[in-house]
Every structure is written in C-alpha cells, then in structure tokens.
Amino acid sequence: MNSSIAKKAGLMGLLLMIVAGLWAVDVTITPPRLILTGVFDQLAAAGFTTDINTQMQELADDFETQIMEDETITKYSKQPDLATAFANAGSAAAQLGTLKSAQDFKLFSVALGTGMSFSVPEIDFFSELDSADFIEDEGDVYAGMAVHPFNLSAGLNLGFLVDGLRATVKFGYFSLAEGDMAEGMSFEALSIGAGVSYMLIKPKAIPLGIVRWRGVSVGSGIFYQRNTIDMEITPDESGYRSAALTFADLGYTTSNSVLDGYGYGPSTEIGTITTTPTVTGTIESSTVTIPLAVSTGVRLLYVLDLSVGAGCDIVFGSSEIALKATQEVDFEVSQAMQSSVTVEQPGSAELSNSTEESPQIFRPHLMVAAGLSMGPVRLEVPFAYYFDSDGNTYVFGLTLGVVW
C-alpha cells in the first residue's frame, strides 16, 4: 500500500470518528447552583423575591434546545448509512491473512498477513477526501473502514480423507491503547475463523512448467471479526454559551432603589452558562461471514502467481456508532456581579445517542491476488471488490506465507 493511500486511510478513520461524535440528540443539562449575596441580600431585605433556581432551570432548558436544534448537530442525529458501511467493511476484511494463490499445497501452509477495507459511496471518494469538509457537508454518508493489522493462518491438506479437500484456520488480533495511534483514540481488532476448499478441477501444467494452471477450487467457511475504535472528541472547541442571564430575566423589569443603589438595572448581566462537551465516541462492527467462492489461477515462469475468483458472502452481525458524555456546566459570573454571585456547585451536561445497523446480508464480490513464489515462500497482494447496495467495498492486503 503506497503512502498516499495510507495517509488517506488514516484521514478517513479520523474524519469518520469525528463525524460520529458531532451528533447528540439526547441532551440533559442540570444548571449550576449559585450562592447569592450582596445585592440579593438587600433585595430580600426590601421584600423582593429572587427565584433564581427556576430561572436557571428555564435557561438550562433553552440551552438544551439550542444544542439539539443546532444544524451542525442535527445533521448527524442518526447515522444508518455510516453504521452499515462499517459493518460491511468489517465483514469484508474477515478473511485477511489467508493465502489466495496456494489452494493446491501438498501438505500444509502457514501465513502472516495484514490489510484493511473501505466501504465508500459511488463517487471518487479518495479524491473527495482531500477536502476535510466532505463528510461534514454530507451528513450521514455510506463510508466505513476496518483494519486488521495482524493475522495468522494455517492450512492442512485433508486429501487423506477426501482427495482435493483442504482446510484453513486463521486468527488475528491487534490492539492500540489510547495515545498510541492518536491522542484520545484507541483501537482493537479481532478475527477468527475456519474455511475449507475443494479442488473441483485438478491443476495442469504444460511441458517445462513455464505455465501451471492451478485448476478450479470452490470454498466456504465461517469467519468472525470485530473492529472497535474509541475516541474522545470535542465537537466545538469554542464550546457552547447560553444567552446572558439578566435582572430582567429574574423579574426585575423596572429599576428599584436597591438596584439603583448598586448602579444596576434590568439589563445588567448576572452571568452566562457555558460548557465545552468532550464526547466519548465508539464505532464497533461485529460480524459473522459465510463465504461462498470459486477461484482459479496460474503460475508463470515458476515465480509469478495470479489468482482470480468470484463469490458471494452471507453476512450476519451489526455495527454500532455510539457516544456518551457527562460534562461539567459552569456559570460564568459577569464582572459587575463578582461580589454578589458565587458558584456553589457546577452543573452537568449529559449527552448520549447511538445508531445500530446490520450489514448487507448477501454480498457478491470479485477477487484477485498477485504474488511471487520463491520455492516454498509466497508473497502475495490480495484485492477484493464488493458490489454493495449503497456503494462499493475495497479490500487490500499483504500476505507472506510458506507452503509444503
């Protein structure tokens, strides 16, 4: 994989996580509790009642509405296309780490592989990714990814049971703690499964072995994968601010002797509710894939391998995009009221939401793998192309193996 694609893959992952963290349709705000002295003591002594708790709660309710009706948030209130894309990308990557060009091994095989998959809409997506505004502008978009950096597989020729029958098992796991990949971001990938293939038509070679046709194999199996990304996101670095609370909001719509004595009036600002939520977002795909495939291939000049195939995966599982956050809500006392208002206890803001979708059940695809053979050593680059209902999924990998 070249550095340009790798760079864009990283950008895509970050953009998708940030998008997932922008929406928050369930918002609950508890206002801060204030201690009132100074002018409010004088107002109370003069017979004026200051119902600030009620006013603060009304202000908090208005604040909730402001957040929930923010266009940059409501655009992302549900993400069904995004969730489906992550599920599809995850299932497509479940078989990474298995050799595609060694279906005719004599005894057994072992392989180590890495790779990733992308599910994207039917546009020039990689070109669009050059603009960081793309996903933000689109809202819910069919775009997902799965990464499986470390996969081991082993195959065994079961010809002693049924001629032409071979079995393969695989296991993959990789984990990055928070901060290893990016600040506030962690990642975990798990895959496990087993498959069988049957040589439907035996391999054939022309004299001198310059070209060897590998015959036709059919295969199936069952593969489970889970891909999880966690990230802390600050949706708006500048935070959210309510309208300023004034004496008029507390019922003092006209001046009185107490306010006049302090130089205050109905429009004098008491303070403002502020908060900058930090959202913990999670994207997790968990799928079970049953592949049905047919493949063939050739070896050229003893060292060049090319395999092609087609098939349809039957997929079950889900992908969930979830966020939750509890953030302190502060009351910023105006300069004029510093001697009369003290924040006894900050309030809180709770945000939560999630979208869960299933992958596409039937997923037709094409596969090609090109590689080199150096005695028992195989190095191959597999590629798969899935025909999705809402776009396409691409799978890239690199596999190193040994066959006997």
Total number of domains: 1
Tell me roughly what share of residues is in helical segments.
10-25%
Shape: rod-shaped
Rg, alpha carbons? 30 Å
Largest sheet: 10 strands, antiparallel, barrel
Widest beta sheet: strand line-up: 3-4-5-6-8-12-13-16-17-18
* CA distance, first residue to last residue: 28 Å
Number of strands: 18
Order of H and E elements: HEEHHHHEHHEEEEEEEHEEEEEEEE
Question: Total helix count?
Answer: 8
Structural class: alpha+beta
Low-confidence stretches: 1-24
Entry summary:
The protein has 404 residues and is α+β, with helices and mostly antiparallel strands.
Features:
alpha+beta; ten-stranded antiparallel beta barrel; rod-shaped
What does this molecule look like?
This protein has one domain. It is of the alpha+beta class. Helices cover 18% and strands 51% of the residues. Strand 12 and strand 13 form a beta hairpin. Strands 3-4-5-6-8-12-13-16-17-18 form a ten-stranded antiparallel barrel. A two-stranded antiparallel ribbon has the order 2-14. It has helices at residues 3-20, 39-45, 52-68, 71-74, 80-92, 125-128, 134-138, 257-262, and strands spanning 26-30, 33-36, 108-120, 144-157, 165-176, 185-201, 204-205, 211-233, 240-241, 245-246, 269-275, 279-300, 304-333, 341-345, 347-357, 362-374, 377-387, 392-403. It is rod-shaped and about 110 Å long. The chain starts with a helix and ends with a strand.
